[in-house]
Design goal:
This protein has about 110 residues and is α+β, with helices and mostly antiparallel strands. Helix content is about 50%, strand content about 20%. It is built from four helices and three strands; from the N terminus they run E-H-E-E-H-H-H. Strand 2 and strand 3 form a beta hairpin. The chain is globular.
C-alpha cells in the first residue's frame, strides 16, 4: 500500500478524474491489484483538509491524517460507508485501530 499526502487542488483533480466528483475530499483509495490474498493499493490524503478538519474535531492535523490513512486502508480491505449500517461498522473499525495508537477519534454525524 502506498500513501501520498497531497494538497486540496491535487486531490480535487484526482477526485474529478477518477470518480467524477468535482470537489476536494479528505481521502481517496484505489485497489490496484488483488490476487491470492495479496493486495496492492494506493491511499491519497489531503493535508489541507486535515489541517482544516483537525481544528473542528479538536486534535492535530497529524492525527486527522492518520484517521484518513486508516479510513483509506479500510476501504481497500472492502469496508464502505455508503449505508448507515456500513458507516457504523467502518466507524467502529476506525475507532478500534486508532485506539491501538492511543487516539480517541471524535465524530459528528455530518462528517464525510
Amino acid at each position: 500500500i502506498s500513501l501520498a499526502v497531497v494538497d486540496d487542488a491535487t486531490i480535487h483533480e484526482l477526485n474529478c478524474r477518477f470518480l467524477k466528483h468535482d470537489y476536494p475530499t479528505d481521502v481517496l483509495s484505489f485497489v490496484l491489484e488483488q490476487t491470492d490474498g495479496l493486495l496492492e493499493g494506493e491511499i491519497i490524503a489531503s493535508a489541507d483538509t486535515a489541517a482544516r478538519d483537525s481544528k473542528r474535531f479538536g486534535w492535530t492535523p497529524a492525527d486527522e491524517l492518520l484517521l484518513y490513512a486508516v479510513h483509506g486502508t479500510l476501504h481497500l480491505a472492502g469496508y464502505d460507508d455508503r449505508s448507515a449500517k456500513a458507516k457504523k461498522l467502518m466507524r467502529s473499525r476506525e475507532h478500534f485501530y486508532l485506539q491501538q495508537l492511543g487516539l480517541n477519534p471524535r465524530y459528528e454525524e455530518s462528517r464525510p
